[in-house]
Amino acid sequence: MGILEKIAEVEREIARTQKNKATEYHLGLLKAKLAKYRQQLLDPPGGKTSAKGEGFDVMKSGDARVALIGFPSVGKSTLLSTLTNTQSECAAYEFTTLTCIPGVIEYAGAKIQLLDLPGIIEGAAQGKGRGRQVIAVARTSDLIIIMLDATKGSIQKELLERELEAVGIRLNREKPNIYFKPKKGGGISFNSTVPLTKCNEKMVQMILHEYKIFNCEVLFRDDCTSDEFVDVILGNRAYIPCLYVYNKIDQISIEEVDKLARQPHSVVVSCNMKLNLDYLLESTWEHLALLRIYTKRRGEKPKFDDPLILRRGATCEHVCHLIHRTIAQSFRYALVWGRSAKYSPQRVGIHHRMCDEDVIQIIKK
Ligand SMILES: Nc1nc2c(ncn2[C@@H]2O[C@H](COP(=O)(O)OP(=O)(O)OP(=O)(O)O)[C@@H](O)[C@H]2O)c(=O)[nH]1
Ligand SMILES: [K+]
Ligand SMILES: [Mg+2]
Fold first, then answer.
1. Is the minimum distance from the CB of 131 to ligand 1 under 6 angstroms?
2. Does ligand 1 have an atom closer than 6 angstroms to the CB of 272?
3. Element of type H or E holding 139
4. pLDDT, tens digit, for every residue of 45-93?
5. Ligand nearest to the CA of 76
6. Which ligand is nearest to the Cα of residue 74, counting in written order?
7. Are strands 143-149 and 242-247 parallel, antiparallel or unpaired?
8. 112 torsion bin: left (phi>0), alpha (psi -120 to 50), beta (else)
């Protein structure tokens, strides 16, 4: 029997047991058992845990995935239970949530998968608690919501950023614009298209030496730092947008709320009092940067109530693939109305980049 099943069984037995003088001892024992299992789940014996972990292998579904990351008891489960039809257990004690609980937000015609996760603590990157599993889920997400307790200042934010940074997650940052190509021979060729103020050729040579790379091509297309160059060499970095959500603003002064709300990528809410949740949804949508594309058939109105949902940067080709696997092969041209079009409509090729709320009619061969 897995540890989650054991926990569920004990919880069921506690629920079944009537509370009175005679059962006091029995209940106490059950609760102790529960605490032990929870502890085992958080800190497995031997300190080794697989990256995935029991209860974390939730299927991706919908148009985008958002992960809720935060310290214990900041209100992650309260948020999931408020915004979606899924109920995730909420309670005043820490580590109430032990696995990954998915819910669905429907917004602007898109289905967004929201994942409630166990609280993480300092040292999560080294495998403390269920940190490693939580971080593995965060890596697979299109947006990370870092949920913070508004009453606790900025300390939680800094610690969490450090934990995510330590495992190669880069929040709200673009992939560094550096071309890097390892080669079989020919030494190191270094070039840049802009003046470099934060890094130089010598530094690059030293870094490459450290990584035992002796043959490669490097081209800085931006004024990047040496850290960014290392990120490019390692290659396994995840560049993920992030929204900081300060919860429990019902507990702080209006001046403090105002200060938090003015920080970049930040939203202030109260899940319990349902304050500002509409704006949270709006900001989530903006940070996901999804595109709504309305298809239309010749002589008919666009399907405004049933958009295709695509990622920023999507082209006509992506639209084709979303409609049907084979359409791209028979694509002749498309007519596009909207912000990506110069005229209404513009006749475009398959590599045309789409904008949010464009209308498209595909003409086949
Ligand atoms: N004052 C206040 N309390 C809140 C708010 N939202 C949630 N809480 C309380 O915070 C406590 C923790 O809520 P949870 O949703 O269980 O927190 P969590 O982040 O999921 O916690 P773990 O699963 O243990 O990591 C509960 O007692 C909630 O009632 C809020 O907006 N204001
Ligand atoms: K809790
Ligand atoms: Mg929870």
1. no
2. yes
3. helix 131-139
4. 555 544 456 778 888 889 999 999 999 999 999 999 999 999 999 999 8
5. 1
6. 1
7. parallel
8. beta
